[in-house]
Amino acid sequence: MRVKICGITNLQDALDAINTGVDALGFVFYADSPRYITPLKAKEIVDKLPPFVQTVGLFVNENENFINEVCSEAKMQLAQIIDDNDILDYELLEVKSVKVIRVKSQKDLKNLNNDYYLLDAFVDGFGGVGKRIALEWFEDIDCSRFILAGGLTSSNLKELNNYGFYGVDVSSGVEESKGKKSKQKMIDFVKEANEIK
Ligand SMILES: O=C(O)c1ccccc1N[C@@H]1O[C@H](COP(=O)(O)O)[C@@H](O)[C@H]1O
């Protein structure tokens, strides 16, 4: 089970997250988020990271140029993309990407192609507020290319057993306050994630 911790705003949280064994760190380039980080500050953090950790930039309804420029400046290796109006031309992106599906109903899980998707619960405004997707919607669906997000915590991760998700993404569930991660919550989260089958 791959684990991404999203909403990194400072070096200490990034290093604490890495020490728990996470696979990816997320940086929010969405100005209305309490976890927003400037590309320059993200780059300063990324420059101090050890190898073998993927850096992921989160974008909300931005155009290709903006995504390319920020990923280049901030040294993001993957773009996590919310594109509500489906207008992005992915061919124009200079960085690998994963599309976010903001899941409102079980219908949104049907007819997806063979790509990897990050699935987050639909909320008015945007994510990072701890809302969950109903797990029963995934019964009888192949979850092996899905990264599940939305309302995950060390206490509810056990419920994911046997679904076969590729990975999980968490933000508010490992915070002590908005934009500040809790070292202990990250340790507990990653420990539980490693036990999921
Ligand atoms: O984290 C944010 O502030 C954010 C802002 C806008 C869109 C998405 C955002 N976060 C993403 O939301 C999901 C779930 O987060 P949570 O664990 O429920 O708090 C996750 O993919 C974050 O990357």
Automatic annotation (TrEMBL):
Enzyme Commission code(s) on record: 5.3.1.24
Keyword Isomerase belongs to the record: yes
Catalytic activity: N-(5-phospho-beta-D-ribosyl)anthranilate = 1-(2-carboxyphenylamino)-1-deoxy-D-ribulose 5-phosphate
Signal peptide: none
InterPro entries: Aldolase_TIM, PRAI_dom, RibuloseP-bd_barrel, TrpF_fam
Molecular functions (GO terms): phosphoribosylanthranilate isomerase activity
Coiled-coil annotated residue ranges, if any: none
Pfam families documented for this protein: PRAI
UniProt family annotation: Belongs to the TrpF family.
Protein name from the UniProt record: N-(5'-phosphoribosyl)anthranilate isomerase
Gene: trpF
